[in-house]
Amino acid sequence: MINNKIYINGRKLTSEDLHSQTGTVDILKVLIENIGKDISNKALPVSSYSKNKNDMLGKIVLPLIELIEKETGKKLPLICK
What we know:
It is a single chain. The chain is mostly helical. The protein has one domain (about 5-70). About 45% of the residues lie in helices and about 5% in strands. The longest helix is centred in the C-terminal third of the chain and has 20 residues, at about 55-70. The chain is globular, with a radius of gyration of 12 Å.
């Protein structure tokens, strides 16, 4: 992440890649600070994504996992319970 933008292999992601890059960056910051820990949605920044699991999965988590796997061949160990 550079200036609240996400890059994968040097390519800046666009809104076509992720619906809400701002929401993704905000959530990723919390997750990176707590690697290996379970994080309650209450610990995430307040947004429609942190309040609604389906929105978070469909617009942030799954697209991010798919992008990282497509671009790097690696699986992002991110689980939304």
